[in-house]
Amino acid sequence: MSYRTLLITGATGGIARALLGQLQPGRDRAALVARDATTLAELAATLPAGLEAIAIDADTSTPEGADEAVQATSEHFGTAPDCLAHGVGSALLAPLHRTTDRQYRDCVAANQDSAFFTLRAWVRARLQADAPAGSAVLFSSVVAQIGISNHEAIAMAKGAIASLIPAAAATYSAQGLRINGIAPGLTRTGATEHLFAARNAEAQIAAQYPLQRYGEADDIARAANWLLSDAAAWVTGQVLSVDGGFSRVRPLVQRT
Ligand SMILES: NC(=O)c1ccc[n+]([C@@H]2O[C@H](COP(=O)([O-])OP(=O)(O)OC[C@H]3O[C@@H](n4cnc5c(N)ncnc54)[C@H](OP(=O)(O)O)[C@@H]3O)[C@@H](O)[C@H]2O)c1
């Protein structure tokens, strides 16, 4: 049987962990990439029994780190990964006039740069394979789709990812490479946990969503797993909103 080989970057993050939980030993094998080797090692110890995996500490916001992540995966498994889930990213809540140079640069590096360098490294590896076909999922954000105050830097970086996806999908569609993205709404993970700290925050956040709840990591991971799978074999160049309706629908207030 042939395995699905996944390169999962930002593997220690909430959404990537949820995706790992959906992998099937015997069908899937995974390379887990993040910068913190200790957290990666702890994560490796929690994987589903029998799931073949390696941990690679690399900084995918640099071309060298992204290349190393793909190369180490290919060397370990003897084949270039046919799936990429690029879960690296960050959140930044700051109005434009208070955003420091450092915050801006870090935001662009973690989101825009890492997406570009990682997708490029993955595509280069796939193009070397006898059968290049494969599937990649990147993460944009709802904040790149509609204006939400105090999100200028992250909206710009996630907007760049949303633009990269259809362009790259067009370039490599003839080789069978499918390249898609997900634009999550607010999803409860380590990256956003601080937003839930205030009293009543949980209920107030949930009430902003047409479906009356915020996202859970599994909501996003299920969509990513689908886009990576053959069930989405005729889908490419898309950025799928998984946001409880936030970016698209406005329920009318019911008068009784
Ligand atoms: N949660 C949300 O509400 C939400 C909403 C919209 C979009 N998204 C996007 O969805 C993706 C996953 O989100 P999440 O909530 O699961 O994030 P998360 O929990 O903060 O995880 C982010 C991961 O990226 C890694 N990382 C950060 N910078 C890195 C770098 N330069 N090189 C390599 N690894 C790096 C982090 O590990 P290390 O620091 O150890 O490297 C961590 O594993 C991100 O792109 C995020 O921006 C999330």
Brief synopsis:
This protein is α/β, with parallel strands linked by helices. It has helices at 14-21, 37-44, 63-77, 101-128, 152-172, 201-207, 217-228; strands at residues 4-9, 28-34, 52-57, 83-86, 134-139, 177-184, 187-188, 215-216, 239-242.
Structural description of this entry:
By secondary structure, the chain is an alpha/beta fold. The chain has one domain: 3-Layer(aba) Sandwich (Rossmann fold). Helix content is 39%, strand content 18%. The chain has seven helices and nine strands. The chain has a seven-stranded parallel beta sheet, with helices on both faces. A two-stranded parallel sheet has the order 7-8. Helix 3 (63-77) packs parallel to helix 4 (101-128). The radius of gyration is 18 Å and the shape is globular. It binds NADP nicotinamide-adenine-dinucleotide phosphate. NADP nicotinamide-adenine-dinucleotide phosphate binds next to helix 1 and helix 4. NADP nicotinamide-adenine-dinucleotide phosphate (NAP) is lined by residues 10-16, 34-36, 39, 59-61, 87-90, 110, 114, 139, 141, 184, 186-187, 189-192.
